[in-house]
Structure formats: structure tokens, C-alpha cells
Amino acid sequence: MAAPIVRGWRLLASVAVAGLVLSADGSWAAAPDGPRVLRAVAAPTHELNPSRRVVLPGGAVVQHYQQRVGGRPVLGAEVVTDRPSGAPARLVADTTRSRIEAPESAEMSRERAVGVAESSVDLRALRDPTSARLAIQPGDGGRLVWQVLVPAARPLGDFEVLVDATTGAVVARNDLLRNFRIGTAKLYRVNPIVQHRGGRRLWSDHHDRDTPLLRQLRRRVVLPNLKSGQRCLRGRWVHALRGRAEKETCKPNLHWNQVTRSDNRFEALMAYYQINRSQRYIQSLGFSESNPSPNGIADRVQRAVADAYRLDNSAYSPFSQTITYGTGGVDDAEDGDVIVHEYAHAMQDSQSPAFGHSTRNQLIGLAEGSADYWAAVMSWLARHTTNEDAVCIFDWDATTYGKFYPRVRSAISGRRCGRRADGTRTLDEARAHCPRVLTGSRFAPDPHCVGAVWSSGLWNIRRAVVADGRGGGRRMDRIYLASQFLYTGNETFRGAANALLCVDEDLHPQGRPGDCRGDDYPVIHREMQRRGILR
Ligand SMILES: [Ca+2]
Ligand SMILES: [Ca+2]
Ligand SMILES: [Ca+2]
Ligand SMILES: [Zn+2]
Prior knowledge:
- By secondary structure, the protein is an alpha+beta fold.
- It has 14 helices and 22 strands.
- It has four domains: 8-94, no CATH class; 110-175, Nuclear Transport Factor 2, Chain: A (Roll), CATH 3.10.450; 180-343, Elastase, domain 1; 362-385 and 423-530, Neutral Protease, domain 2 (Orthogonal Bundle), CATH 1.10.390.
- The structure holds calcium ion (3 copies) and zinc ion (ZN).
């Protein structure tokens, strides 16, 4: 039996349950020595002011605290506690900051700040009067800003503009109005091979030309969440561009049904469709920045540039937070697997920037395997797809592989796969048999190949959970996504497997609290043990 797993974040949880006093009305000041749960948060306790309080059916109390310094609210900085009836309060979320300095008074008047904000949104008409208050924007000790709310009629929007109260510079500008339009197109739900249920008559890329078959394999799809007031592929979660010049793809009526794969707009449409679809699924699993305790995963506008260069490669850049897709061989953004795989790297970076920025070989294998898993999931979720469609990664892009990238030939469905997520190797076997490639200054087993141990392990767990009938794939995908919040810049396969166990306990508690043995412990542990990842 393994010892309980202790990860850094768990320490916080154990402080939270150590014995805390939150008085019946949810205020902490009345308690004799303050609620101890609040001592674990980043901000000093005297900066925490009770704000929203919700009593759930059954009596549990959810209490929010807003961080205020020198009387000014710190934007986005709050603590959420949850007190089950008859039990001590526990800390649910903490977005407060330590070491925020008390602001000096504003040099800029309210009137001038309102003027700056209104002209920054090209205001032509208001629906209601503009309002403004002073607040602190965290970061670098905090800066004093005017938070200006502009309820505009033209252009239509609920604009929140932050104006630096000293310099008058516009620091941030957001439209909070949830007002989106829907476009349409005829695209590949995954890729032509999946749509065609195999590689027959699709052995060649035809150099980006249209063929009757490639045309016919397109399916009518909707492109939701496009921002109103514009006509391009700018949406709530994706801004899709194309070409080296990063051109917009625009159409006044947002109907792109005539566009086919020989037209470069096709790839931009595919990128928009696939990324939006991924984020929609993530949100449906309960991960969103607009939750009371924000837990979004790449919940922002993802910049994606299709046909960005002529290489047969695609990449996510953690520096610019931009995804670029190449046109070498098959245009990478004609294949949903490639689009989603790269987006998974953006998700990893958003969940753990230290992980996203690391270059350690073992960690890259983990990141690649994890991204392949996400490609398999998004394929599996598309209509009328099979397990083979899901586990054969990059089925369309791999049509032209072979020169620089080895391809795996599928024995089952007569198609080529860039990689597979149904391998049986253990970690040691993969390290011994994967081709050695130059990584950094030394030769090491190809991390993409080693990563297949991870993607295949995750996929097996998913299949087992689906077969169990207890929430199906969504249950496993939630565990997978939640576990990546625990990743560090030194992540290992073993650590990542333990993270799966710990979040499974968080999501599906079972037995002794805190031992990282939740409801799915047997199935996760068995698979990871078989792979030689856990003992
Ligand atoms: Ca194309
Ligand atoms: Ca390609
Ligand atoms: Ca596939
Ligand atoms: Zn990758």
C-alpha cells in the first residue's frame, strides 16, 4: 500500500480543515481570534471584507470576501469559504494578493477618466450614464485605476475600461455584454479520414486541390460565439487568422458554406470551429473563468493562425500565447486532430504556466501524450465516430508523412496515423524502444513516442470509466483537466499519475479524506501500475 500522497496544494487544504471558526452569520471579525481558515490566504486578514454570502439548501454557507487596501477594492481579489452545516469552514478559493500597497490619491479626476474611457471605445451613444470608481489593479504592488463602466448603445457593448489614475493610460478594456452571433460553414467535423471512415481513396493530399470526395466529406457546422458588431472570425474564445500576414477571414453574413479546402479561408474556419468546440466542452464540464471561484482553462480569446508557414509543423507559443499551423504536406489545420492537439498545449500553459514553459524531456513526453489524449477525446465527441477514429491521431495530416516523420500504419482500419493512443507499452519499454532524437544537447528517446504511454494509459482509463457507466467520458475528462492544475515545472509521469488520483478524490471522495484515494482509485491506479508509472 502506498503512502498518502502529499502535494504542495494539499497543505493549503489541511490548514483549512484544521479547526476554524466562522461565526454563524458568516462574519469573521466577531470570532475570538478570527477564523483561522483566512490565515492561509495570500492577503493579510485585515484586508478581507465579507461581501457576498449564500446559504445553500441544507444550511451550508458560502461566503465571499473582497480584498480591499486603503479602502479601495483590489480587482479580482477574493476569498471564498464554504461552511457545511455542523462543520468548520474550509477555504475554496483564494485569488487575493500579498503585499499590495495602499494607494495614494488619484491625480486624474473622475471626469477626465470617464472621457478617456468613452473615447477609447469610440462611444457614439449611451444606453445609461457612465459610472466610475477607484480600484486597485493587482500586480507589481498594485496600481490605482479608475474602473469605468460604459453602457454603450453605439457601438453596442457593456464596456469596462481601466484607466491608470496617475498617467491616464488605458490599462484594460473589456466588453462584458454577452452578445454573440452564429456563423455557418461546411467543414470536417474531425478530418476527411474520419468523415470517410477510413483511408480509401484518400492516400494523397492532391496538393491542396479540391476533389469531389474531399468536397463531399464536408459537413454543415455552426460557428457560434462570434462577436457581434464585426464580421470576421473573432469570437469569445478564438480569434482565427490565416497566412504569414495574419489576415482576417470576414464575411458580412457570416455564412461560409461555399469555402472548400483549396481556399485558405477553410483552414481558418476549421481552427475557429475546433477550438471553440473544445472550449465549449471544457465549460460544460464546469471549468470557467466566470464561475464564482474562477477555474477557467484557456478561458480567453485564443489567437490561432492557420497556414502560418510552409513547414510541416504546428506549434503553441507560450510567449505570445498564439497557435500557428503550417502548410507542409496536408495543411495542418485541415485536420481537427492537429488543431485540437495544439490547443491542448495552450490549455496546459494556462493551467500551469511553469509546466507550459518547461523544456525537460520527461515533461515534454507528458505534455505530448496529454495533448494526444485531448485530440482523441474531441474526435470521440464528434458525431458518428469510432474508437479507431479517436486513437489514430492525425489520420489526415499523416497522409503525407514519412519523409521526416515516421508514421504508424494502422492494422485495423487501413489508414495512416501520426501516433496512436492505444499502445500497450510500459514507460520502460517505450524508453528502450522509442527512436532516440536530439533533445537539447543530448540524444534521448523521442518524447512524442514516449508520450504515447501516457495518452494510451489515459485512454484506457477513460474506456474503463465509460464501461462502468458512472458518468462516462465526462467524468474522466473532468479528472484529466482538473489534474493539470496541479502540474509543476518539474512534472514527472509519476507526479502526473498521482495528480489524477488526488483530484479524483477531490471530485469523488471516498474513504479517509486526504489520502488521494477517491472513487476511481482502483481503475486509475491499476492502469498506471501496469504502465510502470506507479508502484
Ligand atoms: Ca487547404
Ligand atoms: Ca501537414
Ligand atoms: Ca483521429
Ligand atoms: Zn505537441
